[in-house]
Task: structure prediction
Amino acid sequence: MHTWKYTQPVEIIFKADVLNDLDDILSQRGFSQGILICSNFFVKNGMAKEVMNSCASLRAVHSGIQPNPTLENVQSCAAAMVAAKAEFALAIGGGSVLDCAKIACAIAKSGQQIAKIYAGEEKLSGDTLPMIAVPTTAGTGSEVTAVSVLNDDTGKLKASVVDPCLFPKLAIIDPVLTMSMPPAVTAATGLDALAHALEGFWSKNHQPICDALALEAARKVFSALPVAYKSGNDIKARTEMCEASLIAGLAFALPRTAGSHACSYILTTDYGMSHGEACAFTLAAFTRINADAEKGRLHDFAKKLGFEDALAMADRIDEMKKEMGLKYTLGQAGIRNEDLAKVAHANQHPNLLNNPVEMSVEKLVAMYNEIG
Result:
């Protein structure tokens, strides 16, 4: 018998134009002195000022979080929380901002150093500031997971910190906030959501509730992502993608990701791909590799989505990457044949152990050669 459990502690609000109600939402939950965490982009475009002016409980702003946040970004963010005497944090942005804010909230009260947590020398104390997560992209699902993905300060090592205390207190999803995403970001983050759904489904830790969520998230991505990519102002497609991202986050939060995410880290650190594009790079390949695992359950998944089988679903993933201008060959990614062994060794990440088909260095090299 397959034993499993399901936990999801994050309160979720899904509403268009929710920033108009933000002050009420915060006051109703007793949040009285907080800090806004965002990127420099939101400071420059005036959104940070707009949010601060509309929320009486926000007292300070911290920005400057870079894509693929570093340990220094986290430590600075935590220090800003302490300096502001913040009792909660409101994080608005993409996955990088949310991931940085989540773990900064987890060390701000305890005074722990993120370097020791990242190195595995200490565990998080669990004494965390409550965080409200407001995503502005549709893909990461960070608003409903207990995972923070960080780079070390050299930018050459990327890894996850996982702990139940990293779950946000509240997730607020507003499709209107994603309408400013340029097409390239829409494509990459959208396929990141698809990777979350598929990897959550085929993870060795899969379970029935997350399986059902994965199916629905994938259905929405295949349907809505091409429309959102071509017509960024299509609110229906943006809404569908926000739902897909959220549901995919729930789909992988417990089973965890697998091969595509394990392979993505070096593609980001050494080859400059965004996280979503890096996950998408091997997603079709892993779909083919995992197609017959566990009595072919991935074929059943694909058929429920209207594909002939998992191989046809993999073909569609490749087509979507081409249609949306994402990298799909080794040459486009800048990966030389002589680098494949190095890349495959770097892919030996704990997430790879979740893949239903065991992937040795040799098998990974063969996979990259198949990608071509």
